[in-house]
């Protein structure tokens, strides 16, 4: 059975956060620890807003150039994750969140995860840039292709329809 990281993180991360809270609280005191957690939350929300809006402008600019904004979309997702991590109380999640606000770290994270994700867009490929007027496939159906008429004993028909038709 393969090892799943999510249940492991759900168990280990809170325990790690508690241990760090205790260690920091012993060094600087309870009130200073709580103030530091509030400060990182406010700083994270400011960073989320600034980098989020900046990234949306880069996405729009890339689309206006007729290209698919793959890198920008990945960065937008990572900025969103960074914001959630910074809004979550704790020093470990704050450290991970602040690291995700650094573009070089986001690029390294994407380089690591790239093999596990496939980005699919309408009419895109690495060799052909995306454009709003690109050719799309149209499937034209006749009325008979999507109507209710057909075999009465079809497994695709609702069981009530089969009883009412008999």
Describe the structure.
With 166 residues, this protein is an all-alpha fold. The protein has a domain of 112 residues. The chain contains seven helices and no strands. The longest helix has 35 residues. The protein is elongated. The two termini are 49 Å apart. About 5% of the residues have low confidence.
Q: First CA to last CA: what distance?
A: 49 Å
Q: Helix share of residues?
A: 55-70%
Which regions contain 5 or more consecutive residues with pLDDT less than 50? 124-131
Q: Note the overall shape.
A: elongated
Q: Strand fraction band?
A: under 5%
- Quaternary arrangement of the chains shown? single chain
Largest β-sheet summary: none
**Helix count from the secondary structure assignment:** 7
The helix/strand order is: HHHHHHH
Number of strands: 0
- Mean of all residue-level pLDDT scores: 79
Coarse structural class: mainly alpha
How many whole angstroms does the radius of gyration measure? 25 Å
Briefly summarize what is shown.
This protein has helices at about 5-30, 30-65, 70-85, 90-100, 105-115, 145, 160-165.
Q: Which descriptors would you attach to this protein?
A:
mainly alpha, 66% helix, elongated
Fold blueprint:
Blueprint: H1 5-28, H2 30-64, H3 70-87, H4 91-100, H5 103-113, H6 143-146, H7 159-165
Helix pairs in contact: 1-2, 2-3, 2-4, 3-4, 3-5
């Amino acid at each position: 059975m393969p090892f799943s990281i999510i249940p492991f993180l759900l168990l280990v991360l809170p325990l790690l956060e508690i241990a760090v809270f205790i260690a920091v609280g012993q060094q600087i005191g309870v009130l200073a620890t709580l103030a530091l957690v509030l400060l990182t939350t406010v700083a994270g929300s400011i960073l989320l807003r600034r980098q989020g809006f900046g990234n949306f402008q880069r996405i729009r600019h890339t689309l206006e150039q007729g290209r698919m904004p793959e890198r920008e979309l990945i960065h937008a997702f990572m900025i969103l994750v960074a914001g959630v991590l910074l809004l979550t109380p704790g020093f470990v999640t704050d450290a991970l969140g602040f690291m995700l606000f650094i573009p070089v770290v986001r690029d390294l994270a994407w380089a690591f995860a790239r093999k596990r994700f496939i980005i699919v867009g309408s009419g895109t490929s690495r060799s052909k840039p995306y454009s709003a007027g690109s050719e799309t496939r149209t499937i034209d159906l006749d009325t008979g292709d999507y109507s209710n008429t057909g075999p009465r004993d079809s497994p695709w028909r609702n069981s009530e329809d089969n009883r009412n038709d008999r």
